UniProtKB/TrEMBL annotation:
Residues 186-303 form the Aminotransferase class V domain. NCBIfam families: PRK04366.1. It catalyses: N(6)-[(R)-lipoyl]-L-lysyl-[glycine-cleavage complex H protein] + glycine + H(+) = N(6)-[(R)-S(8)-aminomethyldihydrolipoyl]-L-lysyl-[glycine-cleavage complex H protein] + CO2. Its EC number is 1.4.4.2. It holds the Pfam family GcvP2_C. One of its GO terms (molecular function) is glycine dehydrogenase (decarboxylating) activity. GO terms for biological process: glycine decarboxylation via glycine cleavage system. It is an enzyme of class 1 (oxidoreductase). InterPro entries: Aminotrans_V_dom, GDC-P_C, GDC_P, PyrdxlP-dep_Trfase, PyrdxlP-dep_Trfase_major, PyrdxlP-dep_Trfase_small. This is glycine dehydrogenase (aminomethyl-transferring).
Length: 514
């Protein structure tokens, strides 16, 4: 039996010379349990709760009453619990192992945060409660705002945006409001080539034309190209710092000064703020607006892509245009300013209700439990972890840029040249090693990109194990063992799926078999 350096089998376990790769009668494979969809297990006569029969009554909803089954599956409670437990075991999450997705910052979510978010005063709150009954929640929001403003070095914050991209929208809308207030009809926003895709999308959504700015050979913004593009048509520049190549834009002050001299605004994508918390304040760098992904920097859970909180901070030039509502102090206590008046140039209401209280509680719990020194150390450890990955792999993989990185290490596919193995193949083989793949093919400025962000959450032992696995895969690829990669993953519940077909013809609704 083939064993790896940690004494784990790398091939099917054999007993008395015979492979155990037979088909079971149940369809299960040991603890890898197989079962149909929950809808396929449905029985009309079974349910986990007893519901009384509904008597005769008249529907008074203008003929909109349901005339068919509601479509919810009926199962006994144990079957429901087992179904979702089995599904969870087929998934990968941060509680199972490292999540090296670059540009995503998949860090540990402390259980203290969850305990605080479930306190009845926060967990049971309703957006339509009278202000007098939510003074504690408003105080928490004000405290969270204070921490955010201190960490970013800015004078104003909007808590209401529901995610990072929504925060971008908020920031660009504030820029548009400021330009309109001074009668300046600018129509262009500049975005670096390595920008997150949401940056140009946000600019276009707000009605701006997007112009791309190239990068230099060192992976940073070409400031001379930027300066040549600045004129009286440019409304703003959107720069991610640290950028998507995992590098700090060391000319950021010069960028800000050039943008401001042209009468434009400097929007900073704060997706990578986790790398510089306590080390550098965006406000001190000349940033006018920046969103913060609470699910990246401040440990609130990602959920289905991020369950909704992307606060935006503003400079003095934009602080009057923050969206409603926001917390204000009055003689009678805290309240929400809900409506703009003639003296208030606010962009108006951005969302129906203020935001995700659960995310505010979790983020503030993380901040206060760490303290300012702990938040700084977390950023330092995140950068240290990424550079440890970079230093440990750059002799066998090809680093895209020379020198140290910030919070994530960027490699390209040059080390796979002539091996017959692609970036996708390599990433799929990582699943067989028990790891979620890193971010692939992004940023687009690097061919066959592999972007690895370990975060501060991983111990040196975990990083060493990850490094050993990566080095082992590189050795296998260079040895010509293409079969190990071309069909990977072999150990995942469903194997390699046709992702192209799934993207082009997704099946989004269950249809019962005829």
């Amino acid at each position: 039996m083939s064993m790896n350096t940690q004494g784990r089998p790398t091939a099917a376990v054999e007993t008395d010379g015979q492979s155990t790769a037979f088909e079971s009668f149940s369809g299960h494979r040991g603890l890898r349990l197989a079962e149909p969809l929950i809808f396929e297990m449905d029985r009309e006569d079974t349910t986990g709760v007893d519901v009384e029969e509904v008597g005769d009554f008249d529907l008074e909803i203008a003929g909109l009453g349901r005339d068919s089954k509601i479509g919810c599956p009926g199962l006994p409670e144990p079957d429901v619990v087992r179904h979702y437990t089995r599904l969870s075991r087929k998934n990968y999450g941060i509680d199972m192992g490292p999540f090296p997705l670059g540009s995503c910052t998949m860090k540990h979510n402390p259980r203290l945060n969850e305990k605080m978010a479930r306190l009845p005063g926060f967990g049971d709150i309703h957006p339509l409660q009278p202000i007098s009954t939510v003074q504690g929640a408003l105080e928490l929001m004000e405290t969270l705002s204070h921490w955010i403003l201190e960490l970013t070095g800015t004078p104003a914050v909007a808590l209401s945006p529901k995610a990072g991209a929504h925060g971008e929208l908020c920031g660009v809308m504030a820029i548009r409001a400021a330009l309109e207030a001074r009668g300046d009809a600018r129509e262009v926003i500049l975005c670096p080539e390595s920008a997150h895709g949401t940056n140009p999308a946000t600019a276009a959504f707000c009605g701006y034309k997007v112009k791309s700015i190239p990068a230099k050979d060192n992976g940073r913004v070409d400031i001379e190209a930027l300066k040549q593009s600045l004129d009286d048509t440019v409304a703003a520049v959107m720069v991610t710092n640290p950028n998507t190549c995992g590098l700090f834009e060391d000319e950021v002050r010069e960028i800000a000064d050039a943008v401001h001299a042209a009468g434009a605004f400097f929007y900073c994508d704060g997706a990578n703020f986790n790398a510089i918390v306590g080390k550098a304040r965006p406000g001190d760098l000349g940033v006018d607006a920046m969103h913060l992904n609470l699910h990246k920097t401040f440990s609130t859970p990602h959920g289905g892509g991020g369950p909704g909180s992307g606060p935006v901070v503003f400079s003095d030039a934009l602080k009057d245009y923050v969206p409603l509502p926001y917390v204000v102090k009055t003689a009678d206590g805290l309240t929400l300013k809900e409506h703009a008046d003639d003296k208030d140039p606010s962009m108006g209401r951005l969302v129906a209700f203020h935001g995700q209280m659960g995310m505010y509680v979790r983020a503030l719990s993380y901040m206060m439990s760490h303290g300012s020194d702990g938040l700084k150390q977390a950023s330092e450890d995140a950068v240290l972890s990424a550079n440890y990955i970079l230093a440990s792999l750059q002799d066998v993989m090809t680093a895209s840029y020379e020198g140290p990185c910030m919070h994530e290490a960027l490699f390209d596919d040059r080390f796979l040249k002539d091996t017959g193995v692609t970036t996708l193949d390599f990433a799929k083989a990582m699943i067989d090693e028990g790891y979620h793949p890193m971010t692939m093919y992004f940023p687009l400025v690097v061919h066959g990109a592999m972007l690895i962000e370990p975060t501060e959450s991983e111990s040196k032992n975990n990083l060493d194990q990850f490094i050993r696995s990566m080095r082992g895969l590189v050795e296998e690829a260079k040895s010509g063992n293409v079969a190990r990669f071309s069909g990977a993953p072999y150990f995942a519940p469903m194997g390699r799926l046709d992702e192209t077909q799934a993207a082009r013809k997704p099946v989004l609704k269950y249809e019962a078999a005829e």
